[in-house]
Amino acid sequence: MVYAVSAESGITDPNKTVNTKFETKYLSVNASTMTANFTTCINYILKAPIADIDYTVAIMVANGMRYGGSTFLTSGKKGLGLSICSNPPDFFRGILQHEAGGHGFGHLADEYVEQTGLIPQSEVDKLHTLQLNEIYLNVDVTNNMSNILWNHFIGLSNYAYVGAYEGAYLYSQGVWRSENNSLMINNINYINAYGRELIVKRIMQLAGMTYSFTDFQSKDVMELTPTTKAASLIIDKSKILPPPVIIRKMSYFMQ
After folding, report:
1. What angle do CA 6, 31, 37 make, to 5 degrees?
2. Strands ordered across the beta sheet of 57-61
């Protein structure tokens, strides 16, 4: 943990400027999107004893009680992730898990819906490009169980709840997620099975270890509660967080 002392307490928003070390701010009065001075962030991240910043997820806990958060990722199989999380007492855990755990480390896409209608082809093409770099592998644009990205879960009795649920990656049609609920939908304390596998794969990849699906199954803990198995979703639209900002080059952070 690296501490920084600001001249003033709080977070900037369009109605009030606060003099803080990282120039952290909400981008609008009502939306949850946040940003900061990336050069200052990098300088402080480098104060930590990290071997390689390209394999680092940095979490900025912003001194703001209003709900908000954002994640910035450099594209590629490795790359810096920076997750900014506000700290409203009732929602901090969910924001942190969603932004830093889901987006920042797991490279998972949002699984909720913001727009009705079919996902545009331009967005499909963009998604496929990101998936080539092992980003957003938890969603797919097919519901063909033989070809879907998590097809190796289909037909396994202990993963009978894994299927194809339409609506993900912000669009209501033409894109699917593997389970009805997850922390990438409504910030609940649950990572779906395929999301768990992707995170375990990333841990092992960074550790230089060989991944085995058989080994994963033997150690996987399935927390099947009424909340995770619920057929209907309760989504508070005011608690939807923005999708990550994908950065092509590290130099963006240094501007």
Report:
1. 35
2. 57-61, 81-85, 69-74, 245-247
The pTM assigned to this predicted structure is: 0.92
- H or E, element range at 26: strand 25-26
H or E stretch covering 96? helix 92-96
Instruction: Find all residues with CB under 8 Å of 194, minimum gap 6, and list them.
Output: 138, 149, 150, 153, 162, 178, 179
Q: Distance between CA 73 and CA 248 in Å, rounded?
A: 8
What are the structure tokens assigned to 174, written together?
Answer: 């033409």
Which of 103, 52, 98 lies closest to 82 in space, CA to CA? 103
Q: What are the chain's domains?
A: 25-254 (3.40.390)
Per-residue model confidence (pLDDT) at position 230:
59
**pLDDT grade, residue 31 (50/70/90)?**
confident
Token reading at 87:
């700290």
Give me the pLDDT at residue 107, please. Answer: 94
Query: Of 184, 147, 162, 151, nearest to 229 (Cα)?
Result: 162
E strands of 63-181, at which residues?
69-74, 81-85, 113-118, 139-140, 165-168, 170-177
- In sign, the C-alpha dihedral spanning 161, 166, 169, 175 is positive
Q: Give Cα 94 to chain centroid, integer Å.
A: 11
Q: Where are the alpha helices (DSSP H) in 188-225?
A: 193-206, 213-219
CB within 8 Å of 203: residues ≥ 6 apart: none
